[in-house]
Amino acid sequence: MFRFIVSRLLQAIPVLLVVITATFFLVRAAPGGPFSAEKTVAPEVIKALEAQYKLDQPVWQQYLSYLNDLAHGDFGPSFRYPGRSVDELIAGGLPITAELAFYAMLVAIIIGVSAGVLAALKPNTPQDYVPMSAAMIGICMPSFLMGPLLVLIFGIWLEWLPVSGWGDLPGDKILPAITLGSGYAAFLARLSRGGMLEVMSQDYIRTARAKGLPEWVVVLKHGLRGGLIPVIAFLGPAFAGLLSGSFVVETIFQIPGLGRFYVQAAFNRDYTMILGTTVFFATLIVLFNLLSDIIAVWINPKLRHQLREGK
Amino acid sequence: MSDPVLAEGAIKKSVPQTEKGTSLWQDAWLRLRKNTFALLGLGVIVFFCIIALLTPYIAPYGYEQQNLMLGAVPPSAEHWLGTDIFGRDMLTRIMYGSRVSLMVGFIATGVALIIGVLWGTIAGYAGGRVDAVMMRLVDILYALPFMIFIVLLMVVFGRNILLLFLAIGAVEWLTMARIVRGQVLSLRRQEFIEAAVSLGLSRWTIIRRHLIPNTLGPVIVYTTLTIPSVMLLEAFLSFLGLGIQPPQSSWGLLISYGVETMEEYPWLLLFPGLALSITLFALNFLGDGLRDALDPRASRN
Amino acid sequence: MPLLEVDNLTTHFHTREGVVKAVDGISFCVNRGETLAIVGESGSGKSVACYSLLKLIPQPPGIIAGSALFEGNDLLQADDKTLQKIRGNDIAIIFQDPMTCLNPYLTVGEQLIEPLIYHRNISRKDATYRAIEILGEVGIVEPEKRVGSYPHEFSGGMRQRVMIAMALITEPKLLICDEPTTALDVTIQAQILELVKVLQRKRNIAVIFISHDLAVVAGIADNVAVMKDGLIVEQGPVDDIFYHTQHDYTKKLLASIPEGAKPPPNSPLPANTSITENKPLLSISHLKTHFHDYSSGWLKRNQKVIKAVDDVSLNIKQGEILGLVGESGSGKSTLGRSILQLVPVTSGSVVFDGTDLTNLSPARMKPMRRRMQMIFQDPYASLNPRMTVFDTLAEPLLYHGLATRKNVTEQVLALMDDVGLAHAAIRKYPHEFSGGQRQRIAVGRAISTKPELVIADEPVSALDVTIQAQILDLILELVEKHNLTMLFISHDLSVVRYIADRIAVMHHGKLVETGSTESLFAAPQHEYTKRLLSAIPVADPARERKRQVELTQLGVDN
């Protein structure tokens, strides 16, 4: 298991290198520098600025020095926010985005999985139709539509919950977390329903029943593990989706998280900020994929076995 | 060289009383026809597509036709879905928006379909080491934060609609390749493919007559389900202001305008939102229905 | 009073096609220490009947009616809670496929102790102790270690032992065995049957043994009930059923069991004598087919190599039927596929009518392919589900230029006549046929190219016994009519004995013995052949009883 984790971590390095390289050169190839928007600035000033940010050096030299900085945990200075480093901005935004993503994931897993399992236990009954119709709505109602509608209903018309901010007012975290999590809750509900239906029709479930086990033991002990395999396989992509979803949700609710920084950086052509956040996101996503792989191996003895045999 | 095995027509005259067989396609169609939601979905899609095609001829107003005196008004007899703050007719704008949204959905899915099917078929059919290498590449690409890349691409190269097709297609093909490869792999192990080989049929004949017709089902289902997710992606980007650029319009863009003024003029958010959601509903229902209809396991129960 | 007394049990399902009367009013009873065998073909309702007793039917049925008195209480009237207490406690079940019936995510020990924990309130520690004990009893070596293993770490036979241990751990009064050996090799089957019998005697429990195979049942049953279409057509003591058969269907079942050697050919030609002198049509020498296992990683140097076929040399003479026998994993199917170059051969040669096939270009292979055809095991997988009978049969005819577009229909109809399919079915698709009819289509496709050599890979093992007999006779008839040479691959020695002139036995990729059918059966030379032959159950209760005594004395059951 340990060797598996290490080998997967090693495999992640080339992936990250590709991401960094591609992003770096993509950004450099873009027409229009970060300072071109400000037309009033004198050419000498731009020159000085470019020298300050090492933009006058050959591209490959910039690339190498950037890699070197990265290796030391330095994402470089921000072009748009003079005097502040990308590290600082990420450090400021990360806890907020992480918290948001965590709550959203919680919403998604708890609501999604329990709805899916309940539906699978009594297929083609109201217990199946109701949660699955709700899931369909969740899938067809994207976050950028769901968010404003929730704001409109609970924030503006009913005035139950605050409509923006993060941690400023009581309850202001509820709407963003639901907005971000609901789509994934819907996906997870469908996945866990499918997985559970598949598993509950397996022969070994019949064996468990034939042993006279109570139905809840049959479902929770014998059914759930196998039924959740598709859910776990989806956790990696779901996390990536949550991160990009945070772009929208943080914009709608004016939350000062990483996602909002990223969108702003993209508009402002803030090279180092784009690079920094992209690299950071990529690392997170790669790590999370690894985590979901490890969970998948951990709950599946067959995979564990193969791993031991393979080494 | 023309293939001699195309004599299906010959039989119709020479054999008198035959019992008519029901092919799996006919079987699936019969099942689909019983699924009200899926049929409704199909109807909605066809209807929206026709409207989108005919928009320039049937739109009640001009696309950029403003009426600043009017401003934003709620739905009325002249403007069925109301007008925006510049007094532009919402129905017209949604109709024009549908052209972009649907086009992105279909074309980007088409890109994904072509790359994915080719990649998956080759990997699955070649098998062994080629397959291992090709699929490892897909795994690596899967690990990349593509959404972020698309945002980046749109920023760097400007909001170019062609680029959007390619970028979205480039993300979506991965899953398609996996599905097709899985299908081909399991089919290859089926004995009827071995039987075809032992009959001496050429590789191309086997692929065309035995492999492709049997992979079609899952591919159709997945294609139907990819279209809504692509449309969602486009709307997402447009919402952030990174997708379609004005004066062009798409549902995502209309929604983002609607959000800005939703407190005062909720219909500006409501109607484009409805249009998008209904389309997504329709496509998802159709996809689900097709899956139920084409899944051989469903037919056995 | 019998332990279980079932009266007029009826199970009907509501389906889209209407009401299916799976079980239509059957009555039987079982006493302590007795074995009742319920025998029938697929779809006869034998399993449904037993599952109905414990409400283990997958989908909610329309009706379960009648009564089933177990120790005086009606199981069919019992509520879910009462049933739960009876299941696994008083009545235990062993299922058919040990590969799918154990939960792959839990250790064997965990699954074994569950009945004890939930029925007897025994502590985990004591239950585990008991689990180790019973694992040892059913013949698992080092049970204290194996108790922590997962099901995939056991072989099929071992898993079935685990299933038996799991069923018996609570000392039930009634054991239902649903085809417990059908998924197993014949030598393993003999061991499992013996094990069930020993354990039954020791505990004096009642057994209901469900099987499609009268021969399996002959040695172990006290009473036999024969089921067909949801009804018991005949039941009684085992000797009566076998020796004083009343019902036509039972007679038909008994007659379908392939027994004895191949009947002499009907034609007066000196075929039988000439075969032995004929030159070999196919000669294989030092053939090796090895597979690389890429699953463990595609760049590793020391990949696992599976030697499926390992240095096999064999001749098949013109006009002969060579039976190739072996258990699962022996490499017999791979050998068949290697001959046809359907899998890449590692080394050695396959000479067909003077041409070595192992390194022919695809272009030169094509005309050879026409001359050699294959019949596959699974008639559900071997036909393209999207092609009609006409498409399937016309494809090879047109492709090899054996028919023109004008006369192809005629030829297809002639083929359908040959294999006994009605003309009217020509435009139907495979899923509209039964298993036997599908296999007829597959046979038709194999002979469509007018081949000289046909390789039949377990062509009847997926079929019911009565259908099996029909297909075997069809194959024999066609071999004679078209003067075919055949390699007949099977795990079933009785079938091979019935059809083959000569038999080759394969074990672990190697050929261990070859000989004429008569001599091989009369005087097997190799140790493995002997074991294989002694394991075949015979549809004769007296002989089976005698044989089992001998087996036990010999200590064949390890």
Structure description:
The complex is a heterotrimer of chains A (311), B (301) and C (558). With 311 residues, chain A is mainly alpha-helical. Helix content of chain A is 77%, strand content 0%. The longest helix of chain A is centred in the N-terminal third of the chain and has 36 residues, at 86-121. The N and C termini of chain A lie close together (10 Å). The model of chain B is unreliable at 1-16 and 297-301 (pLDDT under 50). The longest helix of chain B is centred in the last third of the chain and has 38 residues, at 203-240. Chain B is globular. Chain B has one domain: MetI-like (MetI-like fold), CATH 1.10.3720.10. Chain C is globular and about 70 Å long. The chains are: A mainly alpha (311), B mainly alpha (301), C alpha/beta (558). At the B-C interface, α2, α5, α8 and α9 of B face α13, β16, α14 and α15 of C.
Question: Keywords, please?
Answer:
heterotrimer, A: 311 residues, MetI-like fold, B: 301 residues, 12 helices, globular, disordered N terminus
Mean pLDDT of chain B: 80
Annotated CATH topology of one domain in chain A:
MetI-like fold
| Biggest beta sheet summary of chain A | none
Percent of residues in helices of chain A:
over 70%
CATH class term of one domain in chain A: Mainly Alpha
CATH homologous superfamily classification of one domain in chain A: MetI-like
Summarize model confidence as the mean pLDDT of chain A.
81
- Would you report the number of β strands of chain A? 0
Specify the CATH homologous superfamily of chain B: MetI-like
* Proportion of residues in β-strands of chain B: under 5%
Give me the secondary-structure category of chain A.
mainly alpha
Determine and state the CATH class of chain B. Answer: Mainly Alpha
Number of DSSP helical runs of chain A: 13
Nearest-angstrom radius of gyration of chain A? 24 Å
CA-based shape of chain A = flat
Q: How many structural domains can be distinguished in the coordinates of chain B?
A: 1
Helix content percent band of chain B: over 70%
Give helix and strand order of chain B, one letter per element, not per position.
HHHHHHHHHHHH
The CATH level-2 architecture of chain B is identified as: Orthogonal Bundle
**How many strand units of chain B?**
0
Bulk shape of chain B: globular
Write the layout of secondary structure elements.
The complex is a heterotrimer of chains A (311), B (301) and C (558).
Chain A: H1 2-29, H2 43-52, H3 59-71, H4 86-121, H5 126-140, H6 143-157, H7 174-200, H8 203-210, H9 215-227, H10 229-252, H11 258-268, H12 271-299, H13 301-310
Chain B: H1 11-14, H2 24-34, H3 36-58, H4 90-126, H5 128-143, H6 146-156, H7 161-189, H8 191-198, H9 203-240, H10 251-260, H11 267-294, H12 296-300
Chain C: E1 4-15, E2 18-30, E3 35-39, H1 46-53, E4 63-70, E5 73-74, H2 80-86, E6 91-94, H3 108-120, H4 124-137, H5 143-146, H6 156-168, E7 174-178, H7 186-203, E8 206-211, H8 214-218, E9 223-228, E10 231-237, H9 238-243, H10 248-256, H11 271-277, E11 280-292, E12 305-317, E13 321-325, H12 332-339, E14 347-352, E15 355-356, H13 362-371, E16 372-375, H14 389-399, H15 408-419, H16 435-448, E17 453-457, H17 465-482, E18 485-490, H18 493-499, E19 502-507, E20 510-516, H19 517-522, H20 527-535, H21 541-554
Parallel strand pairs in C: 3-8, 3-9, 6-7, 7-8, 13-18, 13-19, 16-17, 17-18
Antiparallel strand pairs in C: 1-2, 1-4, 4-5, 9-10, 11-12, 11-14, 14-15, 19-20
Helix pairs in contact in C: 3-4, 3-6, 4-6, 6-7, 7-20, 10-17, 14-15, 14-16, 15-16, 16-17
